[in-house]
Design brief:
Blueprint: E1 9-10, H1 11-18, H2 22-30, E2 38-39, E3 46-48, H3 53-63, H4 69-78, H5 82-113, H6 118-122, E4 125-130, E5 133-140, H7 147-163, E6 173-176, E7 188-194, H8 199-202, E8 207-211, E9 214-222, H9 232-244, E10 248-249, E11 253-257, E12 269-274, E13 278-279, E14 295-296
Antiparallel strand pairs: 1-3, 2-3, 4-9, 5-7, 5-8, 6-7, 6-11, 9-12, 10-13, 11-12, 12-14
Helix pairs in contact: 4-5
């Protein structure tokens, strides 16, 4: 005796049981998240199995976590069990990291909007003379959330080229040619100084340019101070110092890395943060070497 096939649910009944709208069901079908069991060839009407309700309800719950549909697809593809649970755990960990950053940013903005001087008083502003440097360079349009992965990766690529051509000759640095945030993408440039006499050889494997000599105003930051958004306070402090000294910005902001960021203790200085260059009124032009990057390691 053959088993009687389980009756299929029309899209209306399936929507009621799954608590999904018809619009959502059509979208999830189109994206491959929840395809119907059968589509009538003549009417295009969708039919679902009753056991698909559980998958639909899982999608509903995942979306309540504000999980993007692409990530929902990843969790569904991983399936029930440890793989799916791990995928969900990874997503939620990323959400908690984002919320932690946003919480710190809200605190920073509250202090700033209330006229607080906390960020200015935390940083001692210094200046230094920087000689002309020949650097290996990699540049990219990138948003703030991508910086923690891209900067080390680009630095590693350039360092490998430098090591093959006499090594790194000074502290690597990052130049922020434009605003870098959730809405703006720079561009950002990673620079690794090398021996100028080896520029031609190194140039076969990476872009090479000359960084002009200049003066910098900068704040020296510890490992604990370089996290976003805390690092924004260093920029504010430097640019405030630029204004107080009667200077004008004449170049992009930068970060100079002279310590091991990943392994340094929280209180150890690892970075000089410098903003755009500045020229004293009536002084030398930026091309003559009077640039003052605002923040640098």
């Amino acid at each position: 005796m053959e088993d009687t096939p389980e009756p299929l649910l029309g899209i209306g009944e399936f929507a009621r049981r799954s608590r999904l709208s018809l619009k959502a069901l059509r979208l999830y079908d189109r994206l491959g998240l929840l395809p119907p069991d059968r589509v009538d060839a003549g009417t295009g009407y969708r039919f679902y199995r009753n056991d698909q309700v559980a998958r639909a309800r899982l999608i509903v719950l995942l979306r309540r976590l504000d999980m993007p549909l692409a990530e929902v697809a990843g969790v569904l593809a991983a399936g029930d069990g440890p793989a799916g649970a791990d995928r969900l755990a990874d997503y939620w960990a990323s959400v908690e990291r984002r919320i932690a950053v946003q919480r710190e940013l809200a605190v920073y903005l509250r202090i700033r909007l209330s006229g607080g001087e906390g960020s200015r008083g935390m940083h001692r502003i210094e200046q230094r003379e920087v000689p002309e440097q020949t650097v290996l360079s990699e540049q990219r349009h990138i948003r703030v959330g991508e910086l923690p992965e891209w900067i080390p990766a680009a630095s590693g690529r350039l360092q490998a080229v430098a090591d093959a051509h006499g090594g790194v000759h000074a502290a690597p640095f990052v130049v922020l040619h434009g605003e870098v945030s959730e809405d703006s993408d720079g561009p950002v440039e990673v620079c690794v100084p090398i021996d100028p006499s080896l520029a031609a050889l190194a140039g076969r494997s990476a872009a090479v340019r000359v960084e002009p000599a200049h003066r910098e105003l900068y704040a020296r930051l510890t490992r604990a101070q370089i996290e976003y958004p805390q690092i924004l306070g260093a920029y504010d402090a430097v640019y405030q110092a630029v204004a107080e000294r009667g200077l004008e910005a004449a170049g992009p902001a930068r970060e100079v890395y002279f310590g091991h960021v990943a392994t340094a203790p929280p209180a150890e200085p690892v970075l000089r943060r410098g903003g755009a260059g500045a020229v004293r009124p009536g002084g030398l032009s930026p091309a003559a070497g009077s640039r003052w990057p605002g923040t640098c390691p």
